[in-house]
Amino acid sequence: MLIKPLLQWMAPAGARAQLSVLIFHRVLAVPDSLFPDEMHARRFDALCRWLASWFNVLPLDEAVARLKTGHLPARAACITFDDGYADNHHVALPILQKHGLTATFFIATGFLDGGRMWNDTLIESIRGCSLPVLDLSSLGWGAHTLGALDDRRTAISFLIHQIKYLSVAQRITATEQVAQLARAQFPCELMMTTHQVKAMRHAGMQIGAHTESHPILAQLSDVQAQQEIQGSKRFLEQLLGERVSLFAYPNGKFGEDYSQQSVDVVRSLGFDAAVSTQWGTSGAGDDLFQIRRFTPWDHAKLRFGIRMLANLKNNN
Fold this sequence. Notes:
With 316 residues, the chain is of the alpha/beta class. It has helices at 3-10, 41-54, 60-69, 86-98, 118-128, 149-163, 168-182, 194-202, 222-240, 260-268, 301-313, and strands at 18-24, 56-57, 76-83, 104-107, 133-135, 143-145, 206-209, 246-248, 273-275, 282-283.
């Protein structure tokens, strides 16, 4: 297969090197019928096998340091996870270890030890609702038929679009109101515990900050943004007993989710680098506080390789 030679040509070592950074959120133990495209153990195992054979997978802090000095190896890549889901510890970690790979896990600290992100409250409300029709007219969001999986996906997509860019307090209120109307039961162990975060670090994984409550940073004042970012950094540093040098912007789209002011706040708090969700790769001279990331979701090895090559081509 020509994938590896092409990667070598498009992402050589040294001054012309390009860093590919992959982003994940969850790795489920088994496929989810409601979200069949969500990453699960079997797919992640295959993906890790391909990455290990084609790329030089580095810890993100090492990759940042080598990118800065022009000493990245050829075919350099990093693996990252956002939010801090418990399946990162239960499912993803053993697979990474099996393939001899390392990853960086960005933790939204306010959800550790039994917390739940607003979108998961929403998803589980719709998943677990036994009503044939969920009437949200009192909230201004109409009535939603929930007879089939496609109906539930449509309802979830609609509600996420309505709620995503509300303030943190408004998002919590809105999702709690939906949950009450749906009369659903919720899993209480979706996110990692502090013990599991420490276990991940002990296993050789890297831990980065991801704010406390996963807000839209572009909507916050500089003071509020600093509190969110610094709060997660301090929490993790106290938990792990070491400096936390890496940060991930929640949602991660520049201008929509975070701003130049957000970048300036992150830089001022003493981080070494930060990652966005802008697709592409990062090379010499690029902003280390807006490192690009993406995820190729292809199931087949060849298509996965072609997607990785296309992502490199975007920056060459």
